[in-house]
Design goal:
The complex is a heterotrimer of chains A (491), B (351) and C (443). With 491 residues, chain A is α/β, with parallel strands linked by helices. Chain A is built from 17 helices and 21 strands. In chain A, strands 13, 16, 17, 18, 19, 20 and 21 form a seven-stranded mixed sheet that branches. In chain A, helix 12 crosses helix 13. The longest helix of chain A is centred in the C-terminal third of the chain and has 17 residues. Chain B has a single domain, classed as ABC transporter involved in vitamin B12 uptake, BtuC. In chain B, 76% of the residues lie in helices and 0% in strands. Chain B is built from 14 helices and no strands. Chain C folds into two domains: 164 residues, Response regulator (Rossmann fold); 202 residues, Rossmann fold, CATH 3.40.50.2300. In chain C, helix 3 crosses helix 4 and helix 8 runs antiparallel to helix 13. Classes of the chains: A alpha/beta (491), B mainly alpha (351), C alpha/beta (443). At the B-C interface, helix 1, helix 2, helix 3, helix 6 and helix 12 of B face helix 1, strand 2 and helix 6 of C.
Chain lengths: 491, 351, 443
């Protein structure tokens, strides 16, 4: 099926997620969509698969204009998107999941369905047990189930969003094989990824998105440097980087390994020194979050030692880390950072050590006023945190961080903030870094931010961690390629 | 101007909630072929008609209020302590146990009473601690844990009344052998009311009010209740605080049980909790967990309970009508709150 | 936020206000309304005023003494019923007695509260409810359950002006173990022992398997002696009229824990009756206040099994299932209550302990007999004739509480030729030898 997107626009508030995108994908093609986080890839795919509706623009399928209002609509027209998050699956057996999506009939003939299931699965050499429970399947097996299900529903266009995350290399080979087979049958495959290598191996064509716009298309043989530049744009080098004078070791990791159900990180060796800023770069979900949380004591490493200020805190709780001067600033402010329903003043009391049994509310009010002024928060001591804007919430989070702190760990310290707030927050952070002898580790998906504020950089790719790279000497290209999973052989 | 308008819409909605509850109850009365005005009149007379009646309302109010006060603590921590019924019961059992053990000794009655009431508080706290431990260490939701523990508490009471603590020769639903009057909380002459139960209740309310409004403990508890994850990141030991809230609520529930034994029934009876735990949940919900407002609302609920006895006597109506009114009130306040939110949202979107 | 809660509070206040407003004009009329049917307003206000001191209607209050002196025909009596007034059992027997008094004694008016037990009326005590009845004008209050003993005593002591009748107690029995000597407390009880003997006899004459089940309530003196009476009647008729060996008669008592089913608290009487019928007991005598045994018998009968039941307490109990009902021993409280009310209005009442037997000239005479037995449709003509013979023998002085009788544990209860005194019967310490089942509650 030929897919044609004409002038797709979608805005969320002030953000243009898709800005007049034109894209034509002929039948039988494996089309790659590249772009960094927030480039607009997912929005575009959601428009095509009916999860959201575009503000403007037209979708043509085989030259016919269609209006897609829901995922059910999409599959009716032959467009299907794969789910692979375990939460997207109700707790059912494989065959029940398969039947549940079946169109039209209230009571499907399960014998017939099972026969059809085996027939389909044989075609692609899958070996799923129809009686197995879906929640026991691996990510790769769930993908296979989804492919079968969508094909059974009559999908002519398959959309896969980051399908190679969390599956084994064998499963990946199988997946690619399947996709090629499907393309050969005339199906249209849309493959969304940030992994340059995967795209290079698989895709017949590539489109690159940046900041909501289609910035370029390419066909093999791909020029990696060009793709990287299209993805990340020209990074302007900010002059006048201050040279830093690192102090003693604030955090030392010795052979630390971290695991969750999706990936295994490490072993990592790292020494973070006081007055040093280390940026953690990588596509989201590459392991940097796990790593940062392990540094805060929120996740226990499976191996290795963690030493904070010369004290071995391996296996200790988050609160023990906190007592030893480690502060953690999560990205989801209202979920993990602030307490909705509590005022700014109450937050300042909560974040500081208890003094006596009764709260000195007058004193607390004064502290709150001082902090509000010092951090330029637009709010009153009795404002509840949910009434603040995002930027003010972020500044409040910063104001809440305990002092003195020898190690500051932050997820996306300026995500979603305007440029003014970003500059202000970094000036505060840099100030703390040098005045209070803190080491800072932060995650950002903004390469500009990483390059501008870091002294050293750790790059993460699918659980692999690069050595700490000197930010002054690394080029944007190099960094972009590393983030995309290329050039790791050098380490 | 704008603010004023919002206020008036709020009043309208609150009045709407009350009208809804009264309307519903009136409908029930009409369906039962009973005169609604007569019924309401009897409710009022039966609860506030005389000093004696009002004192009876206070007798019911004290334990209800203690239970509600305890629930304020667990609600602040974001917990649904359904197990409060069992905690009241265990308070009563511990109190009865101590009274039985000491009633034949030479110890001063006052001392025995104090010990009995204190152990009632301990009993309630222990029972609550079990629910808390099930939640913290066993991953059992406090609602299910609490329901289970309520069941066990009832079974325990019955076993004691028909077994080890049975009256001489007989086991009877009327409970254990009544305690001598020296072991009652002193009553006001001619009334069933003990001034001590009122004093204890008000003292407990004041303590909890101060604890929740003025202390680090209260503030942290509130934070834990509003957002456990953020509280943890902020450095609050969350499960310890949840456990503490269970203990505190259990102690107050146990106190309510102790009052039931020492000031109301003067013995252990099968349904010693009188359902005040569940009623307390309704009160707490109705006042949106605001400590001070529980006082008049609990009084109102106690008055409904006492006043409703007139219904079967005078109108041959089932006294569960008071329960209908209480339930309808809570539901309609909640419904109206939802409608108000939608209305305000719509109004904001229009403007 | 704060404003919001303020409104919430105001709203609650306004409910009170609304209700108060609605009632305010009517409130002052209360006493008139409750009594308006019978008397002139001034006269009727008087009794109510004296009972409710908080009502401040000065002129009426001053008139009060004058009016109470006048021998008003009208008398309000209150009744506290442990179960529902229409339970086809114990409580309905009392309720019907109240109606009987109203009918026979012009001017008497009953007010009552039913379901007076801690499960149904949490947070109240019978004494408190009795005071509510007094506030409504009751001069005499009847407590109808043994479980209300503490409250009856407390109430009688606190309200010396009110004549208190406690059905089934022993606090007014001078020779009893628990004599309290209150000047305004009377105990009334029927000699149901005879009714139970008749029930036991009917069961023994009917059973095909020789196995009789007794569905007992909780265990106390009263229930023990009633179960034992049923056994004595059964054993007598089994050996005298059927000429069978008493050792072949099996008589088993299962206690449920209370006078009626309280789900989750007592054993389920339906289940207990089922168990009896399923394990070969083809007649179940009910000792509880409700009719589960009869209903189960009906169900088993419909499924083709030949079983019977004997309900208890209430004269009309058999109506629920005539074809399996062998009869019902019942209480007739009316005459005793009527007598006490008459004495009370004449000012001649004395605290007494009455244990009233059947009127042997006609045990079913509604005006004279305190205890009766109505034969059921399921009782065969032959058995009915033998039962009549038995009743006649009892009327003629046959006493089954005569030795030799042993207690369940084998100790001697009555020696050869010894006749039990009222005290011995009332306070029977155990079940009798030959009966199966618990004598005392287990620990």
């Amino acid at each position: 099926m030929n897919v044609e997107l004409i002038g797709i626009c979608k805005t969320f508030g002030p953000v243009k997620a898709n800005d007049n995108i034109h894209l034509r994908i002929p039948s039988g093609t494996i089309q790659g969509i590249l772009g960094e986080n927030g480039a607009g890839k997912s929005t575009l795919m959601k428009v095509l698969s009916g999860f959201i509706q575009a503000d403007q623009g037209v979708i043509l399928l085989d030259g016919k204009e269609v209006r897609i209002h829901s995922p059910a609509d999409a599959i009716h027209y032959g467009v299907g998107m794969l789910h692979q998050d375990p939460l997207d699956f109700p707790p059912m057996k494989v065959i029940e999941n398969f039947i549940a999506g079946s169109p039209g009939k209230i009571v499907p003939n399960s014998k017939e369905v099972i026969a059809r299931f085996y027939e389909l699965q044989q075609q692609f050499d899958f070996a799923l047990d129809p009686q197995a429970h879906v929640d026991r399947l691996t990510v790769g097996e769930r993908q296979q189930l989804e492919i079968l299900r969508l094909l059974w529903l009559g999908a002519q266009v398959l959309i896969l969003d980051e399908p190679t995350t969390g599956i084994s290399s064998l499963q990946k080979i199988k997946l690619f094989e399947t996709l090629r087979k499907l393309a050969a049958q005339g199906k249209t495959i849309i493959f969304v990824s940030h992994k340059l290598e995967d795209v290079e191996q698989l895709c017949h064509r590539v489109a690159v998105l940046r900041r909501g716009q289609l910035v370029g298309e390419a066909t093999p043989p791909y020029q990696m440097d060009d793709l990287v530049q299209m993805m990340f744009g020209k990074v302007v080098s900010f002059g006048g980087r201050e040279s830093y004078k690192p102090g003693e070791i604030a955090l030392e990791l010795k052979g630390v390994s971290i695991e969750d159900y999706r990936m295994r990180i490490g072993p990592v060796n790292l020494q973070a020194r006081k007055r040093e800023v280390i940026g953690l770069a990588g596509m989201e979900g590459s392991g940097q979050l796990l790593f940062l949380r392990a540094c805060a004591g929120l996740i226990r490493p499976t191996a290795g030692r963690m030493v904070v200020n010369g004290k071995d805190l391996t296996g200790k709780s988050y609160h023990a880390f906190l007592k030893n001067g480690v502060v953690y600033m999560p990205a989801s402010r209202m979920e993990e950072g602030l307490v909705p329903g509590c005022s700014l003043m109450e937050h300042f009391v909560l974040a500081r050590d208890q003094a006596g049994f009764f709260v000195d509310w007058d004193g607390a009010k004064k502290t709150a006023r001082d902090q509000i002024a010092a951090y330029n928060i637009h709010g009153r001591p009795d404002s509840t945190v949910e009434s603040l804007s995002g930027g003010n919430q972020q500044r409040a989070l910063l104001a809440l961080m305990r002092t003195p702190a020898s190690l500051i760990l932050m997820e996306h310290p300026t995500r979603g903030l305007d440029i003014e707030s970003t500059l202000y927050i970094w000036s505060l952070l840099k100030g703390r870094c040098s005045d209070q002898d803190s080491a800072i580790l932060f995650i950002s998906s903004d390469l500009d931010e990483i390059l501008q504020y870091s002294d050293r950089i750790l790059v993460f790719f699918a659980g692999r961690v690069s050595p700490a790279l000197d930010a002054a000497s690394i080029s944007v290209d190099q960094l972009g390629q590393l983030i995309g999973g290329r050039g790791w052989d050098a380490f | 101007m704008q603010r004023n308008k919002i206020q008036w819409t709020n009043i309208a909605f609150q009045l709407g909630a009350v009208a809804l509850a009264l309307g519903f109850t009136t409908l029930v009365l009409l369906l039962a072929d009973a005169p609604p005005l007569e019924a309401y009149k009897n409710l009022i007379i039966g609860s506030f008609g005389s000093t004696k009646k009002f004192s009876d309302v206070l007798v019911a109010w004290a334990p209800l209020m203690l239970a509600t006060t305890g629930l304020l603590v667990t609600f602040t921590a974001g917990l649904w302590n359904i197990g409060i019924e069992g905690q009241i019961t265990l308070g009563a059992i511990f109190t009865t146990g101590v009274l039985r053990a000491l009633q034949d000794t030479s110890a001063a009655p006052t001392l025995i009473l104090i010990l009995a009431i204190l152990s009632g508080m301990i009993g309630g706290a222990l029972w609550a601690a079990l629910v808390g431990a099930l939640k913290t260490f066993g991953g059992v939701n406090e609602i299910f844990g609490g329901l289970g523990m309520n069941f066990v508490a009832t079974a325990l009471t019955l076993w004691l009344i028909f077994g080890p603590w049975k009256r001489p020769g007989i086991g009877s639903m009327s409970g254990t052998e009544p305690f001598p009057e020296a072991l009652w909380l002193p009553q006001i002459a001619g009334l069933r009311l003990s001034i001590w139960s009122v004093v204890i209740t008000i003292a407990a309310l004041i303590c909890i009010y101060i604890l929740l409004k003025g202390t680090y403990f209260g503030l942290r508890l509130k934070a834990v209740g509003r957002n456990m994850r953020s509280s943890f990141i902020l450095g609050i030991p969350t499960w310890q605080y949840m456990m503490a809230s269970f203990l505190l609520c259990g102690a107050l529930a146990g106190l309510a049980g102790a009052i039931q034994v020492t000031a109301v029934y003067h013995r252990l009876i099968p349904s010693i909790s009188s359902g005040y735990g569940f009623l307390g949940l309704l009160v707490a919900m109705l006042v949106n967990y605001q400590a001070l407002w529980t006082l008049p609302v609990a009084l109102f609920f106690a008055a409904l309970n006492i006043g409703s006895i007139q219904l079967p006597i005078v109108l041959k109506l089932d006294s569960s009508l008071s329960g209908v009114l209480q339930g309808a009130l809570v539901l309609s306040v909640i419904i109206m709150e939802g409608v108000r939110q939608r209305f305000l949202k719509a109004a904001r979107e229009r403007s | 936020m704060k404003l919001h809660t303020l409104w919430r509070f105001l709203a609650l206040l306004s409910i009170l206000a609304l209700v108060l407003a609605a009632c305010a004009p009517a409130a002052t009329q209360t006493p008139v309304q409750t009594e308006a049917q019978t008397e002139a307003p001034v006269a009727t206000e008087a009794p109510a005023e004296t009972e409710a001191p908080a009502e401040t209607e000065a002129p009426a209050a001053t008139e009060a003494p004058v009016e109470t002196e006048a021998p008003a025909e009208k008398l309000i009596f209150g009744m506290l019923l442990v179960g529902p007034y229409n339970d086809h059992g114990w409580s309905q027997a009392h309720y019907d007695a109240g109606l009987y008094v109203q009918e026979k004694f012009p001017g008497a008016e009953m007010i009552y509260v039913d379901k007076v037990n801690p499960a149904d009326r949490p947070g109240t005590t019978p004494a408190q409810l009795a005071e509510d009845l007094v506030a409504k004008g009751a001069k005499l209050v009847i407590f109808n359950s043994d479980d209300m003993k503490d409250s009856a005593l407390e109430f009688a002591a606190a309200n010396p002006d009110i004549y208190t009748i406690h059905a089934s107690g022993d606090s007014a029995w001078k020779d009893g173990k628990d004599y309290k000597g209150l000047p305004n407390l009377t105990n009334i009880m029927g000699r149901m022992e005879y009714g139970k003997m008749m029930a036991g006899c009917a069961a023994a004459l009917t059973t095909q398997t020789g196995k009789i089940g007794y569905l007992g309530p909780l265990i106390n003196d009263e229930t023990r002696r009633l179960a034992a009476s049923a056994y004595l009647g059964a054993r007598y008729c089994w050996s005298e009229y059927l000429q069978k060996d008493p050792a072949e008669l099996s008589f088993k008592v299962t206690w449920i824990g209370f006078w009626f089913n309280i789900p989750g608290v007592t054993s389920d009487p339906t289940q207990v009756a089922d168990d009896f019928y399923n394990s070969g007991y083809d007649v179940v005598i009910s000792g509880i206040d409700t009719t589960e045994a009869l209903q189960e018998a009906k169900k088993f009968n419909e499924s083709g099994k030949t079983v019977w039941a004997i309900p208890y307490d209430y004269i009309g109990a058999c109506k629920e299932a005539e074809n399996v009902c062998l009869g019902v021993p019942y209480f007739n409280w009316g005459p005793a209550y009527l007598k006490q009310i008459q004495l009370f209005t004449e000012g001649k009442h004395q605290p007494v302990w009455e244990w009233n037997g059947p009127d042997w000239t006609d045990i079913n005479n509604p005006d004279t007999s305190a205890v009766g037995f109505v034969k059921g449709a399921a009782l065969s003509a032959d058995a009915a004739a033998k039962l009549d013979e038995f009743i006649a023998a009892l009327a003629g002085g046959l006493n089954l509480w005569v030795g030799p009788l042993n207690l369940q544990d084998g100790t001697v209860y009555l020696a050869e030729g010894e006749t039990a005194t009222d005290l011995q019967v009332w306070y029977l310490p155990q079940l009798l030898e030959g009966m199966e089942g618990q004598s005392v509650p287990s620990n």
